[in-house]
Amino acid sequence: MSTTLLAVQILNGLQLGVLLFLVAAGLTLVFGVMDFINLAHGVQYMLGAYLAVAFYALTGSFLSALVLALAAALAFGLVLEFAVFRHLYERSGSCSNSRCFDISTIAITSTTSSPPSASFSFSIMG
User: Which of 49, 56, 94, 120 suits a disulfide with 65, CB 3.0-4.6 Å?
Assistant: First the structure.
């Protein structure tokens, strides 16, 4: 094993460790303040990416697809907050976890059953 490869692997491990620490610290902070963990936040990121590709297929413009996906993902997040999460703040952790997993399952199933058709060779600023 060369010294360069060893240095790269050490830096990769350090980078992954810092990333995992930031995620864990963020979840701990949010849980400590709100006593609620939103385990469906990854699905909200996935939905934003899915909508970006779908809107790019419709509009053909990366910038407009980005703006539309941001607005749609924000609307979806607000609907989840007011329709689901607000009612779970006062309940037990197992109830909120099961609702978050339900949301995740529904979103993953609905996005993988009908992928958007778009060409993935696009120009970002043109």
Answer: 56
